[in-house]
Amino acid sequence: MSDEIKVGAYICKGCGLGDRLDCGQLATIAEREGKANLVREHDFLCNAEGVAMIQNDIDNEGVNKVMIAACSRRSKNDAFNFDNVAISRGNLREGVIWTRPDTDEARETTQEMAADYVRMGCQEIKYMALPHANEEAASNNNLLIAGGGIAGMTAAIEAAAAGYPVTIVEKSGQLGGGAAFEYKRIPESAPYAELEDNGVAGMVAKIEGDSKITVHLNSTITKTSGAPGRFSADISTESGSTSTGNFGAIIMASGARNYDANQLPELGYGKTPDVVDQTGLEKLAVEANGGPIKRPSDGKVVENVVFVQCAGQRSTQEGHLPYCSGHCCLTSIKQAMYFKDQNPEVDTNIIYTDLRTPGAGGEDFYRSGQQKGITFTKGTVSEVTAGSNGPEVKFNDLILDQEVNESADLVVLATGQIPNSGVDVDAPEPEEGAPEVSVDSILNLTYRQGKDLPHLKYGFNDSHFICFPYETRRTGIYSAGPVRRPMDMAQAKEDATGAALKAIQALENAKLGRAAHPRSGDLSFPNFRKEGCTQCKRCTVECPFGAIDEDEERYPQFNEARCRRCGTCMGACPVRVISFDNYSVETVGQQLKNVDMPDEFDEKPRILVLACENDAYPALDMAAQNGNHYSPYARVIPVRCLGSVNTIWVTDALNSGYDGIVLMGCQKGENYQCHFVKGSEIAHTRMSKIDDTLESLSLEKERVATYEVAITDIERAPQLINDMAETVEKVGMSPFKF
Amino acid sequence: MTDANQQMVEQYRNNFLREVEDNVEEGGWVKMCMQCGVCSGSCPLGPHWDHPPQELFMMIRAGKRDEVLQSSSMWMCTSCYNCIVRCPRELPITHIMHGLAHYAKRLGIAPKNQPTHKFAQLFWNNLTKTGRVNELKLGLALYFMNGISEGIKTSLKMKDVGLGMMMTKRLSPMELIGGHKCKDTSGLQAILKKAEELEAARIPVAGK
Amino acid sequence: MSKKSYSFYPGCSSQKAASASNYMVSVDSMCDTLDIELNEIPDWNCCSASIGYAGGGELPRLALSARNMAISEKENPGQDIVATCAACWLATKETQERLHDNDKLMAETNEALSAAGLKVEGSQKVRHMVEVLIEDFGYDELGSHVKKPLDGIKIAGYVGCQTNRPFGIDGESYENPKYLDKLVETMGAEPIENYDKKVSCCGGALAFSEPEKSQALIKDIIESAYDGGADMIVTPCPVCQMNVEVYQNHINQKYKTNFKMPVVYYSTLMSVAYGKSGKEAGLDGQWIKAKQLEEIASK
């Protein structure tokens, strides 16, 4: 194909577009203003004939850029899917005719809207190039797994079964993690009624017999560098010898440790050996080995046992864990069964405030516990003391509203899980004089942004828990098991299987230079014009995925395989040297500059809407499908992430005479919905500083508004646009309409 | 041992639960209650129960034998079955309430002056006599269950209802004399006697 | 349609000069039109309803219903057992269920029955009359016999408890069963929408032992019908009918209300709509007269 650019513009008349719009005028605009080399109208562009027409132009007329003015870019992707050409979409259906009433009065402004989207589509395509595959693409099928507990072993077994060589690095001297010390496990298959062997020995045997799996015991990862497809890791033994391996992807399954029950003297721990935590009970059960369980103090056979749920957790008290560890109710039911299965006459009382039995079989297992005669008491335990005949539990029965003292032979405290999630790279610098807390890093990444996976809350690794649960903020590194969130064995297995599949996907994507979620398969990646860079470091600091390091000259060093293509770096760059082939400061900037800007006295304001393509833009599409109308003066441009919005767009828009600007991103903060985790948050921070720009232009602050919009906001999103139209009416038209 | 200590030892043991499982109609279900409280909230006479069903189930597990069996609560059941159809654990709560009431009665520890307790017994006596309910006799027995003077007062109060029923031929003074009955009363009574014997072999009865 | 035959369990309240004798009158008229033959179970006995539990243990109570079932199996073989009383239906159906679920209870029950030379299998289907109407006839067929549509009468369908729970009518919800409303509509009358107390309890047997508490419930049931604009209440249950009808004077005194709400059976409505006389429809058994129905019946 020649290098000559030839734009084909296609105007669809289907879905009522032909009835509502003067498509002939749109074609003229595409030709005269949009400078399209070839313009065609079609009654039904997405049907076989319409598609064939476009393909014919590509094959025989030399069209290498295609502008389709039809429905939303989110529709008919299967039909409008042409190889080797750049494609832009003008949204005339959801974006114009479905958002406007079909009335005579509305006809003129509706047509103006459509005309602008044709202009914008033609401009966008002019500045777009077809992305080419990542030159950095690297191929490596090996998986590195940090941690040899249930999650790590499961991930190893699953990945090896899929044909990928695995290396497990385990800090301790044996595989199995905490599960290896459990007498029995919570049942993992229907009818979820009876306890099962812990299954660790079987898994270890499987691993030992699998030539694809290499295990390093008594070892840690002392250095990790690279990117998906080309990770390099140093594995060091306790004795100090180090070997280096190359890996395509990494799974972090470093598990959790027990909350230290010594912090719970009020619950009797440490005051009598007959108060144990759940791990302590496992030990007693293993020792009893199917016989009657004996209490530690004097070896008396336990005839009644009390389980105290939420011991030191789900509590706001200092030193306690604020969260629920998820597995402990099931674990206590399991442990009560140790007694009941051995001798149904043993009294077992589980004192809980909210019984939580997650998972497919959780409820069945609870019922099985009830069938076996375990007593479940809704109550709060205030104190456990070492009585003369055994521990005494003081609790408030919340159903019977009474204070109770129950004596027991043994008390088991259900304490929580604390993740082994390494260094919190986002933690604020410790205050001067504060005691230094040393935390062992798990991965020892050489990344600019820190040694380990970022945390979200309570020390658990951040993983996109709503949309992409295994994805961390370090591409190609997946977390699984209780390091990600508290969980039991069965959940850890499911988690690890998912993470293994994602890790395999990541290393396969790396081979092809393709992006991981949410722009799966995207071949574009940030281009960087080094000569313009001022070494300000904003891109290296703001990248939500730690994809950008610094080279020896302190220029940003893009590791494309780590990049998720959100464009946050592009939005961050004050000198605009970062761009993608198909998404750049120009592809958006030229769109917004090339709308028809009516005179100040025409009473036709213009509102620019920059909407996140993941949630806000679909919300507007769905609003249109539902017939929720909005102002005809709005011009909506989808962006990859609000984080990719460069403030130059806002400045340019204001200078071009726009009367209002609405930015729509996803929910930010702790319960973020942002597909790129931090993009929306960063954008909000940037926009909080836009007031200076407005002030320098002597414009009112209200002209720029930034919102968090959910995909379900199909009433609210159009309303926000209408709100801005009202604001403009109030503050008046922009004086910058030249 | 002091009472308090006694209580401390006895509570939250399975003893009473096992007794209920063995002796109370549908009592095996009690342990399956998950304490959601939907039964209590669904009961038409809910506010009048000293201990609504949810609480009774917990009391059984907590070993409060006397408090449960001597309670007037179960006698508040109107047999509307709302609790049964709403219970997420599908406990036959109505039947368990009847079962607990009967078991308390059987052991002779049900509250003596509880009106439904009395009426339910009158009803049983009435129907087992002839095999069919004699509404007039049942009604009069009810009005006079607390003695003659109380009975006359109640009868006067209920006079309009009775007269109305007679006017509409839905009650007849003739019932006082003969009244409806099964022909094979002796066969029916033999059946009941046998059934009671079989049950008594399994479940204790006070005074026997 | 040819004649349909059922093994009929009338129950104590349906007997002559008993509280639901008017129910029986209207059922007979309705069955005449629909060509239903009711073969009374010979020498049937009381089911002990739900209130027999103080004196009667589980087994004696099961034995009572089992005796009826045993006689029915012997004397009316091949027929479904049909009851018009909610409590009779429920007790019999419950007995059947429990005997089938529990071999030991089945054995003991038969041991008890053998004292009178009887034996039960529990093989006959146990049905409420309303089930027969809906399932064996259907609304269209029931509607085809209407001679005098009950035009202009607004009726609150009070389903109550025991025809609704725990078994209910197949395909209906516990919280908002629609069958009475549909029957009302089929007879040409207008069912009231959103009848709040449609499935609320009237107190049942506790209307006798706990009159104050029960009358508070009954008051709400009537009030809600008035709120919905009802001219009368229709019900499928003899206890509901009596409780809601006969205490209105007492309630009026206590709560300073002005209730005078007729409470009729579905069979009353159907008999009138089918062109039967007021007497045949059992209208003379109304404690509170259903004047609109009397007018239609006398036309």
Question: Using DSSP, what is the number of strands of chain B?
Answer: 0
| CATH class placement of the domain at 143-255 and 420-512 in chain A | Alpha Beta
Distance between the ends of chain B = 31 Å
Q: SSE string of chain B, helix = H, strand = E? A: HHHHHHHHHHHH
Please describe the biggest sheet of chain B, giving its number of strands, its sense, and whether it closes into a barrel: none
Residue ranges of chain B: pLDDT <50 for 5 or more in a row? 1-9
> What's the architecture of the domain at 143-255 and 420-512 in chain A in CATH terms?
3-Layer(bba) Sandwich
Rg of chain B, please?
20 Å
CATH architecture verdict of the largest domain in chain B: Orthogonal Bundle
| Number of helices, where a helix is a run of at least 4 consecutive DSSP H or I residues of chain B | 12
The most extensive interface between chains reads: B-C, 66 and 66 residues
State the helix count of chain A: 19
Q: Say which CATH homologous superfamily of the largest domain in chain B is assigned.
A: Alpha-helical ferredoxin
Question: Can you describe this structure in just a few lines?
Answer:
The complex is a heterotrimer of chains A (738), B (208) and C (299). Helix content of chain A is 28%, strand content 21%.
